[in-house]
């Protein structure tokens, strides 16, 4: 009889490592617990969304607080009952990152199911391994002090992407015996083979140098830095493609107009054909203010 594992995706947008691990799991019945916007279906717009096709998908509705990043969905009450159902049906619950409201309840719910296993995976330790800004750094340090014994104490194992994160994890209050290093990765073969040059689609001359950004359109990703940098390069034969969407995209489109860079920066929206972009461009520009290990960097 196959063991059953449910992977927990914390954000509205599907995380690439979540999709990758679901695709690679062998010998398990796999479930996926994922938030969605209220009255909407699960978002499968990412180019790796097809990797979750073998998983049984469970969703729960969320809402967004004003002036709060879309990376922090707030679950509605039905979520709490959905988590209990997941623990009843699955042998292992594998949760990505710890600092969401949903993560806290998933951790607490484990206390009602002592025979079930809970794995917590961390790609970074905010406030320790990188700075999220003075205010957020203070918030994370307080969170670690107040709830670290709970959020780090209950999981059976805590996996990190690399050994370099161990000192930061220990500083946050994680016990060394709970830590296991499991490096992340990706299937490089999916970007091999024939591709369509995006120069034709966007009417970009062959001699023009193309830069690429892939990711969410929000402050943490450094989109403003990209725009200000391209402003300094406006006289060069250079075009920047920004692939993705996000809560701040209209703000950045307005910023591009204010800088009169409409001919230098192109917003493409979300794309499924990422191979065409990675194979066509000359460089990746990724000035993020904070990351674990960005999938776009590995893909490029």
Structural notes for this entry:
By secondary structure, the chain is an alpha/beta fold. It folds into two domains: 3-181, Rossmann fold (3-Layer(aba) Sandwich), CATH 3.40.50.2000; 192-299, 3-Layer(aba) Sandwich (Rossmann fold), CATH 3.40.50.2000. 30% of the residues lie in helices and 21% in strands. The protein contains ten helices and twelve strands. It has helices spanning 16-24, 78-89, 101-109, 134-151, 166-172, 198-201, 223-232, 249-258, 274-280, 295-299, and strands at 3-8, 28-37, 56-63, 74-75, 92-96, 117-122, 157-160, 179-181, 209-214, 238-243, 265-269, 283-284. An eight-stranded mixed beta sheet has the order 4-3-2-1-5-6-7-8, covered by helices on one side. A four-stranded parallel beta sheet has the order 11-10-9-12, covered by helices on one side. The longest helix is centred in the middle third of the chain and has 18 residues, at 134-151. The two termini are 40 Å apart. The model has no long low-confidence stretch (mean pLDDT 91).
């Amino acid at each position: 009889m196959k063991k059953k594992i449910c992977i927990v995706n914390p954000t509205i947008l599907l995380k690439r490592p979540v999709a990758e691990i679901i695709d690679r799991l062998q010998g398990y019945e796999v479930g996926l617990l994922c938030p969605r916007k209220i009255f909407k279906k699960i978002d499968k717009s990412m180019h790796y969304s097809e990797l979750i096709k073998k998983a049984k998908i469970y969703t729960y509705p969320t809402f967004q607080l004003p002036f709060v990043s879309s990376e922090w969905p707030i679950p509605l009450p039905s979520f709490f009952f959905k988590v209990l159902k997941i623990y009843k049906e699955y042998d292992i619950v594998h949760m990505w990152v710890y600092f969401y409201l949903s993560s806290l309840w998933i951790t607490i719910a484990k206390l009602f199911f002592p025979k079930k296993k809970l794995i917590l995976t961390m790609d970074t330790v905010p406030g320790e391994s990188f700075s999220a800004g003075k205010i957020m750094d203070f918030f994370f340090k307080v969170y670690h002090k107040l709830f670290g014994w709970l959020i780090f104490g209950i999981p059976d194992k805590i996996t990190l992407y690399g050994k370099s994160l161990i000192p930061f994890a220990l500083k946050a209050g994680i016990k060394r015996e709970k830590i296991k290093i499991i490096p992340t990765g990706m299937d490089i073969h999916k970007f091999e083979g024939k591709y369509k040059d995006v120069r034709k689609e966007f009417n970009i001359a062959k001699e023009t140098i193309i830069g690429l950004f892939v990711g969410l359109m929000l402050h943490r990703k450094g989109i403003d830095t990209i725009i200000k940098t391209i402003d300094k390069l406006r006289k060069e034969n250079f075009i920047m493609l920004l692939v993705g969407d996000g809560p701040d995209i209209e703000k950045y489109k307005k910023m591009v107009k204010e800088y009169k860079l409409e001919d230098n920066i192109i917003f493409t929206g979300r794309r499924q054909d990422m191979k065409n972009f990675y194979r066509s461009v000359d460089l990746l520009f990724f000035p993020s203010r904070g990351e674990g290990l960005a999938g776009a960097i590995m893909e490029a």
